[in-house]
């Protein structure tokens, strides 16, 4: 529901193996940036998009400016968000949008976060301060993935009490039935996100401008 210009220039920072690049390509000309060489190579092969190699803190693009820059679950991996946010601000066009997601609530911290090399989880007010301190103006900030929140909270708190799952992801590779069910529940919120604020959830989503 973001209104982008025709032929929009889109940059996906921390694109991983490129799972979102094909989706984004339906909205404009997409470039990916990925720190890990192997992931960048796979992203190129799978999406056919240009994928550059480099860290979010020093994106290897000099002059081009983008109408949309996305960071899907990237900020929580960085020791300090400020250098990466400065790069986003540098590369965003004057009327461009910055679309981002991050995991929410430190009380949900678990072995899942350890396994995925997270540094932190976020609450909305501190995240707003970080973004505004980096020169962004928030247009939208909301929790989402609320449907799974009760189950995720129960599982992670139970693991914490029992001392289990200290360095394991919530869903194992190959667990197709569970993953498919989670994806269906997750996708069900698409009609709400961006239209009404959701007061709680496993994640946060936001849109900002320079």
Notes on the structure:
The protein is an alpha/beta fold. It has seven helices and seven strands; from the N terminus they run βαβαββαβααβααβ. The longest helix has 14 residues. The chain is globular. The model has no long low-confidence stretch (mean pLDDT 90).
Topology:
Elements: E1 9-13, H1 21-25, E2 29-34, H2 37-47, E3 50-53, E4 66-72, H3 81-91, E5 92-103, H4 111-115, H5 124-133, E6 137-144, H6 149-162, H7 176-187, E7 203-209
Parallel strand pairs: 1-2, 1-4, 2-3, 4-5
Antiparallel strand pairs: 5-7, 6-7
- Multimeric state: single chain
The biggest beta sheet is recorded as: 7 strands, mixed
Helix run count? 7
- CA(first)-CA(last) distance: 19 Å
Provide the spatial order of strands within the biggest beta sheet. 3-2-1-4-5-7-6
Low-confidence stretches: none
Averaged pLDDT: 90
- N-to-C SSE series? EHEHEEHEHHEHHE
Q: Give the total of beta strands.
A: 7
Output the structural class.
alpha/beta
- What is the approximate shape? globular
Helix content: 25-40%
Strand content: 15-25%
> C-alpha Rg, in Å?
17 Å
């Amino acid at each position: 529901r973001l209104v982008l210009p025709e032929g929009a220039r889109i940059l996906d920072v921390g694109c991983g193996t490129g799972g979102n690049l094909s989706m984004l390509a339906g909205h404009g000309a997409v470039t990916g940036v990925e720190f890990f060489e192997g992931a960048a190579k796979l992203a190129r092969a799978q999406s056919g998009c240009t994928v550059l190699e480099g860290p979010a803190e020093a994106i290897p693009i000099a002059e081009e400016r983008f109408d949309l820059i996305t960071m899907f679950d990237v900020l929580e991996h960085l020791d300090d968000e400020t250098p990466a946010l400065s790069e986003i601000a540098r590369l965003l066009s004057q009327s461009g949008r910055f679309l981002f997601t991050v995991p929410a609530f430190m009380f949900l911290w678990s072995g899942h976060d350890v396994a995925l090399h997270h540094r932190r989880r976020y609450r909305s007010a501190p995240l707003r301060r970080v973004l505004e301190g980096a020169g962004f103006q928030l247009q939208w900030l909301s929790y989402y993935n609320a449907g799974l929140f009760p189950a995720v909270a129960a599982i992670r708190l139970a693991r914490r009490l029992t001392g289990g799952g200290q360095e394991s992801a919530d869903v194992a590779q190959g667990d197709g039935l569970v993953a498919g069910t989670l994806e269906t529940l997750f996708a069900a919120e698409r009609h709400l996100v961006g239209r009404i604020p959701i007061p709680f959830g496993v994640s946060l989503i936001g849109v900002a401008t320079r």
